[in-house]
Design brief:
By secondary structure, this protein is α+β, with helices and mostly antiparallel strands. It is built from nine helices and five strands. The protein has a single domain, classed as H-NOX domain (Alpha-Beta Complex).
C-alpha cells in the first residue's frame, strides 16, 4: 500500500532544500586546521563552499526560509548542477538529505518526538511513512511520487535530481533524506538502496530502506 501525490501545475520546492544543500557544501569545505605558513586569503577562495557567491546564496535562502517562500524546481536544479562538478558530490548530496530530514524531525513538537519512542514498531513505520509523504511533497518538485510502508520506500517519476544530474549522483540526496527520516521515526538505524534510477535508464527512481542496526 502506498500514498501517492501527483504533480501539480504549480509544484514547488521548499527553500530548505537549496539552503541546506549550500550549507552542507560550505561545511565540507571548511578546513579542519590551517597549515603553517598557509596564506588563507589565497587558499580559502579556492574552496567553492567558502566563496562569496555561496555565502550570498546562503544568506538569500535563509531569508526565503523565514518567509516560507517556495522555490521553482529550476532554481534547485541550478544548484544541483553546481554541486555535481565536485568529486565529493555523492557525499554532499547524501549528507544534505540527512540534514533536511533532521530539520523536518526537529520541527515536530517535543511531546510528539517523545511519544513516538513508546509506540509499537508498526505504528512507528506508519508514522515514518506519513512523515515521508509530507517531506517529499516539498522536495519532489514537479515529479509524481509514492511512499510505501513495508519497507518504507520511495518511488519518483520525473525525479528532479535525476533530471538535473544525468550521472545520478544527486539522487543520493533523496536516499539520505529517506534513511534519516525513517531512522528518526523508528529509533532504528536505516540505510537506503537506490534500486532503480531514471539517470540509468529506468522509467522511475526507487529507494528502499533497510534496518542496519
Amino acid at each position: 500500500m502506498s500514498t501517492t501525490a501527483a504533480p501539480g501545475a504549480t509544484a514547488t520546492v521548499t527553500p530548505v532544500f537549496p539552503l541546506i544543500l549550500l550549507e552542507t557544501m560550505r561545511d565540507m569545505d571548511r578546513p579542519d586546521e590551517y597549515l603553517e605558513g598557509e596564506d588563507v586569503a589565497v587558499s580559502m577562495p579556492r574552496r567553492l563552499g567558502l566563496s562569496d557567491v555561496v555565502y550570498k546564496q546562503i544568506h538569500r535562502f535563509r531569508g526565503e526560509v523565514k518567509r516560507k517562500r517556495m522555490q521553482s524546481p529550476g532554481t534547485v536544479a541550478d544548484l544541483i548542477n553546481l554541486v555535481i562538478r565536485r568529486p565529493d558530490a555523492d557525499e554532499i548530496f547524501e549528507e544534505a538529505g540527512r540534514r533536511v530530514a533532521r530539520h523536518a524531525w526537529s520541527e515536530r513538537s517535543g511531546a510528539f518526538r517523545r511519544s513516538i519512542r513508546w509506540m509499537p514498531q508498526g505504528a512507528k513505520q506508519r508514522s515514518a511513512r506519513k512523515a515521508a509523504t509530507r517531506l517529499f511533497r516539498q522536495l519532489a518538485g514537479d515529479a509524481a511520487f509514492s511512499v510505501g510502508i513495508k519497507p518504507v520506500s520511495l518511488a519518483i517519476t520525473g525525479s528532479l535530481t535525476a533530471a538535473a544530474d544525468p550521472g545520478g549522483a544527486a539522487c543520493a540526496f533523496y536516499a539520505g533524506a529517506l534513511s534519516e527520516l525513517v531512522t528518526e521515526y523508528t529509533g532504528r538505524k536505516h540505510s537506503t538502496t537506490h534500486a532503480r534510477c531514471e539517470a540509468r535508464g529506468a522509467d522511475s527512481c526507487e529507494w528502499l530502506t533497510q534496518v542496519t542496526s
